[in-house]
């Protein structure tokens, strides 16, 4: 059953603007698979960001695509590159992705899909983390919710402060390059959040697969805003 926030977003889908100045339903967009089912990941050295970038390029080229999308509730193997997620081998693996990734060139503008206030921001600079991160706060009807944008550039992020207003359609950030984006191949992590739970500038982007239902209710499908046929 959809969460109340998911139902709200579905009712207002026609009101949202783009998050990126590209058509995410265009023929040059493809889904990228980062699960264990993808044989190209078996021997890939994902801790080497250059090698990871080459892998993304090969995955796109195989589908004659320039932009890759996907990842919501995908059980991924790529997070084993991140010591912040796999520091303790005795803990359940956090590998269930709670957002959508859009893999595209660094420097691509990031737009506010609806009017917002800057809730918080931070440079989560650990290897394999979000890098520069912005969280926007929105209100629809009587409901407050949040959108998170990870792997940005430091330059634009430094111009923002909590409490600043951002109008729908405004460019407020750019997709960042490695290593400042958390040392990833360039992409935007976009996530919807119902409750920040007191957090500032950061929020889990992956969860343990066994906790799928509770995290899916807290972080509904980003495609309710992105509205791509490939998601």
From TrEMBL:
UniProt-listed Gene3D superfamilies: Glucose Permease (Domain IIA) (2.70.70.10)
InterPro entries assigned: Cell_wall_metabolism_enzyme, Dup_hybrid_motif, M23ase_b-sheet_dom
Pfam family membership, one: Peptidase_M23
Domain M23ase beta-sheet core: 96-194
Identification of the protein by name: Peptidoglycan DD-metalloendopeptidase family protein
Organism in which the protein naturally occurs: Hymenobacter defluvii
């Amino acid at each position: 059953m959809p969460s109340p926030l998911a139902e709200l977003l579905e009712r207002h889908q026609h009101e949202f603007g783009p998050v990126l100045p590209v058509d995410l339903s265009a023929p040059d967009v493809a889904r990228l698979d980062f699960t264990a089912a993808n044989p190209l990941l078996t021997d890939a050295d994902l801790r080497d960001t250059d090698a990871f970038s080459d892998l993304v390029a090969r995955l796109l080229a195989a589908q004659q695509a320039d932009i890759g999308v996907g990842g919501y509730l995908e059980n991924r193997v790529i997070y084993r590159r991140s010591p912040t997620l796999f520091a303790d081998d005795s803990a359940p693996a956090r590998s269930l992705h709670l957002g959508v990734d859009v893999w595209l060139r660094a420097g691509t503008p990031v737009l506010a899909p609806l009017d917002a206030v800057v809730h918080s921001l931070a440079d989560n600079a650990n290897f394999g983390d979000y890098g520069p991160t912005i969280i926007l706060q929105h209100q629809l009807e009587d409901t407050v919710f949040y959108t998170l944008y990870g792997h940005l550039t430091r330059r634009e992020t430094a111009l923002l402060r909590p409490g600043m207003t951002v109008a729908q359609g405004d460019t407020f950030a750019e997709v960042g390059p490695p290593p400042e984006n958390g040392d990833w191949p360039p992409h935007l992590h976009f996530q919807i959040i119902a409750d920040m739970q007191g957090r500032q500038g950061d929020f889990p982007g992956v969860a343990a697969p066994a906790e799928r239902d509770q995290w899916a209710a807290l972080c509904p499908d980003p495609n309710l805003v992105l509205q791509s046929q490939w998601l």
